[in-house]
């Protein structure tokens, strides 16, 4: 059991919620379970967050920020646009495999009873949801420019994004068939990404 920080109780609540999320997934989170973990009254979290969904949104945006950082680091460390394209994709999958409960929270907006209102409550910070997508788009665009490809980069980036997401979701829902492991699938997919993006060329 932890004690909520008197200096920054909001941060203490978020940390407790993240601990519960990592241990038991979204179903393990409630205002009562957070309060119990912190050793405070059941009403204390409500002084800093209007609802459990607001805490979940806070965790969600933090997770998107970590994914973006992970992808940007992979992009920066790559030696070529082709390498960056593959590295960004691998970073995306790697993040999902390392933090599956975070990933589920990030992309399952239906978990929120009033997503539109909660998003509005977070104001401009909600834009962090899109930052990782823009890293993906930047990697595709840089690759296309380096290869002098006449492609719709937005469309190609959406294809790549949806392919990565689909692969991860199939893995997390245990729907990969015929004994296929995601590590094997990711390796094959990564090798084919540059060729697949080139196939969008209008030349």
From TrEMBL:
Alphabetical list of Gene3D superfamilies matching this protein: Tetracycline Repressor, domain 2
Signal peptide (UniProt feature, chain positions): none
A Pfam family recorded for this sequence: TetR_N
Key words, A-Z: DNA-binding, Transcription, Transcription regulation
GO molecular function, one term: DNA-binding transcription factor activity
Domain HTH tetR-type: 7-67
Domain of life where this protein originates: Bacteria
Record feature DNA-binding region, as residue ranges: 30-49
PANTHER family associated with the record: HTH-TYPE TRANSCRIPTIONAL REGULATOR BETI, HTH-TYPE TRANSCRIPTIONAL REGULATOR RUTR
Protein name stated in the entry: Putative transcriptional regulator, TetR family
Lineage: Bacteria, Pseudomonadati, Pseudomonadota, Alphaproteobacteria, Rhodobacterales
């Amino acid at each position: 059991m932890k004690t909520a920080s008197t200096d920054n109780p909001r941060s203490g609540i978020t940390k407790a919620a993240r601990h519960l999320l990592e241990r038991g997934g979204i179903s393990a989170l409630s205002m009562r379970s957070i309060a119990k973990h912190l050793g405070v009254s059941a009403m204390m979290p409500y002084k800093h967050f209007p609802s459990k969904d607001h805490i979940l949104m806070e965790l969600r945006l933090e997770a998107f920020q970590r994914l973006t950082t992970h992808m940007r680091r992979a992009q920066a460390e790559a030696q070529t646009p082709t390498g960056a394209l593959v590295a960004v994709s691998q970073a995306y999958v790697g993040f999902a495999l390392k933090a599956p409960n975070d990933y589920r929270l990030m992309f399952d907006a239906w978990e929120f009873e009033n997503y539109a209102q909660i998003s509005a409550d977070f104001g401009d910070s909600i834009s962090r949801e899109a930052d990782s997508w823009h890293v993906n788009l930047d990697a595709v665009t840089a690759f296309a420019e380096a290869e002098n490809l006449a492609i719709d980069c937005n469309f190609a980036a959406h294809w790549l994004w949806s392919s990565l997401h689909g692969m991860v979701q199939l893995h997390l829902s245990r729907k990969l068939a015929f004994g296929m492991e995601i590590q094997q699938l990711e390796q094959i997919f990564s090798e084919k990404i540059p060729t697949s993006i080139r196939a969008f060329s209008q030349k």
